[in-house]
Design brief:
The protein is an alpha/beta fold. 37% of the residues lie in helices and 21% in strands. Helix 10 crosses helix 11 and helix 19 runs antiparallel to helix 20.
């Protein structure tokens, strides 16, 4: 008799018996499968769950790491299972051996799908189970072997319509360029589709499209840096802007004022929100699209970039019954992702969690989320006052921007609630003088502040093309000193440099991770806040407590071969 999934996960060390009880309660309340509940609650990774399911069903597990989830390219598998069928049914052909077709899929109990593939291929089917993220990545690598964007912009070939958008989605009656009424609308639809599809495949966070005197510029922001891409023709620019405006329900006739909107697309079986900002410029409107791909959001606190002692300190503070926690950093540094990952980790049915955000970027199961709407009076401060009548235990405030919000957060913390929020300061301890400037009394702040942290995002080296690198002796000494590292351990350190390859689109990097500084409030630090508010004295007290600053945390990523020396030097300063 097959072992139950929860028993296998406990045996693997992925879950504790107490966590199993929490998951079972969540399953009962939300009517979802046990495997889905474990992943949604962030108690185990998707790969851990799928490996457990592999044992439960006695079906082998396929992954890139074990070398099975790498389809054979010389066996004509694309003709047996087309890309459309593969993506629609979440299945991938792997190889043909002794008359059997091996496939990777998410649900090995889908007998109808297995029978359908047997009929299509004329072969017996050998199923392998895999995780959704691994399957989608393998599909991209197997099927996507051409630059769709360049082909469309150069009109060198026909582009197959994608599920991103179609003419049936919107009313195109006013879409024609009045100066050129004979323009072919479908060509612009294809160009917009190609831009979106290429951007998503390259892990783009923002698309910049703008018109200059002699040319059109199209740039993708990938891992924090902008890269030029093949732009549309100059005479197609206005039509493409109009297409995007229609999708986001904006006024296509208004070209004098900034406009903001959004739309949602389906791509590779996942929902992706696109936020649109149009701003008038000298030569024409500038368009920026922010891509919020929920399928790539990292909600696992273990994969964010915390050092073990930092994670321990943050979670200890997040499990306090009341107090203030502030995470600082510039816009786009991943603060929302970190706080949402923390909430996902500490979430429990026994507590009432509420968030107030602008906007709500991640939908979290089991948590009440509210989006502020200043136009109708729903500000952060007004929302917080309402929250206190909703019997909350944990409150997330998207950002403290003004005195009123700061005082409301302090009041909530002093009346027995745990409040997490963000501030725009360059360093974690810079939150203290900023909050006092906003009107918080030092003696109240000293007693209620539980933790302050700061973060930045660093690019992670591409695993396919990075090459070993030996830094010079002066750089090595600098790293040892600033990172508070033991020089005797340097034989175990590994340094790499970026090169660039097709898999990382020539950048040398693939993805980003956060570096942190995390400071739990000690009695010494509370005394300084109460008496002098001296930032230099606060920093010295934090160092004495053994906490790492941003630069020291960054050097630990470097010596593990995760990023480069130049990357850390570019985003941190010596006193951060």
């Amino acid at each position: 008799m097959a072992k139950a999934l929860n028993e296998i996960l406990v045996d693997q060390g992925a879950l504790t018996p107490e966590q199993v009880k929490k998951v079972q309660l969540y399953v009962k309340q939300n009517n979802v499968p046990f495997s889905d509940a474990v992943i949604k609650l962030g108690m185990a990774t998707e790969d851990q769950v799928m490996m457990a399911l592999s044992k439960h069903f006695s079906i082998p597990y396929a992954s890139k790491e074990n070398g099975i989830l790498v389809p054979e390219r010389e066996q004509g598998l694309q003709k047996i299972i087309t890309e459309k069928f593969a993506r629609d049914n979440m299945v991938l052909p792997l190889f043909i051996e002794e008359g059997e077709l091996a496939i990777a899929l998410l649900d090995p109990t889908n007998l109808f799908l297995l029978e359908n593939i047997t009929r299509m291929s004329g072969k017996q089917v050998q199923p392998f189970i895999t995780s959704k993220s691994q399957l989608l990545n393998a599909m991209d690598a197997f099927y996507s072997n051409k630059n769709l964007l360049e082909e469309v912009m150069n009109e060198s070939s026909k582009v197959e319509e994608d599920e991103v958008a179609s003419d049936d989605d919107v009313d195109v009656s006013n879409f024609l360029d009045l100066d050129k009424p004979s323009q072919n609308i479908s060509q612009y639809v294809k160009q917009v589709n190609a831009i979106l599809r290429q951007a998503i495949s390259e892990r783009t966070s923002d698309i910049h499209l703008e018109l200059f005197d002699e040319r059109v510029s199209l740039r993708f922001r990938i891992d924090g840096s902008l890269y030029e891409r093949t732009p549309p023709a100059r005479d197609a620019f206005n039509a493409i802007i109009s297409r995007i405006k229609i999708l986001s329900k904006l006024d296509i006739a208004e070209k004098r004022l900034p406009q903001d909107g959004s739309f949602t697309i389906r791509y590779q079986n996942r929902s992706i929100e696109v936020r649109v900002s149009v701003c008038p410029a000298v030569y024409g409107e500038k368009l920026v699209l922010r891509i919020l791909d929920k399928g790539t959001g990292e909600m696992n606190i273990d994969k964010l970039g915390f050092e073990p002692e930092q994670k321990k300190a943050f979670l200890e503070a997040a499990n306090l019954p009341h107090g203030l926690i502030f995470l600082t950093g510039p816009t786009g540094s991943g603060k929302s992702t970190t706080l949402n990952a923390v909430l996902t980790t500490i979430r429990t049915p026994e507590l009432n969690f509420m968030t107030l955000e602008d906007p709500v970027e991640y939908k979290l199961a089991g948590i009440s989320q509210v989006q502020v709407k200043p136009a109708i009076g729903l500000t952060f401060a007004a929302g917080l006052r309402s929250f206190l009548r909703q019997d909350p235990d944990v409150i997330l405030v998207g950002e403290v921007r003004d005195n009123e919000t700061a005082e409301s957060c302090l009041k909530a913390a002093l009346t027995g609630h745990l409040v997490l929020s963000t501030l725009h300061t360059n360093e974690a301890l810079g939150a203290v003088p900023r909050l006092i400037d906003m009107g918080m009394e030092p003696f109240l702040l000293a007693s209620s502040l539980a933790l302050v942290a700061a973060q930045r995002l660093v690019r992670v080296l591409c695993p396919y093309c990075k090459v070993p690198h030996v830094p010079d002796s002066s750089t090595l000494s600098y790293i040892i000193q600033e990172g508070h590292l033991n020089a005797r351990d340097q034989n175990s350190w590994t340094f790499f440099r970026a090169v660039g390859c097709p898999k990382c689109f020539g950048t040398g990097f693939m993805g980003r991770r956060a570096i942190y500084e995390v400071f739990r409030m000690t009695e010494e630090m509370r005394t300084i806040i109460y008496k002098t508010q001296d930032l230099v004295a606060l920093k010295q007290a934090a160092i004495r407590s053994g906490s790492l600053n941003l630069r020291a945390n960054g050097w630990r990523k470097v010596i593990r071969g995760q990023t480069t020396v130049d990357e850390i030097l570019s985003i941190t300063t010596a006193d951060e």
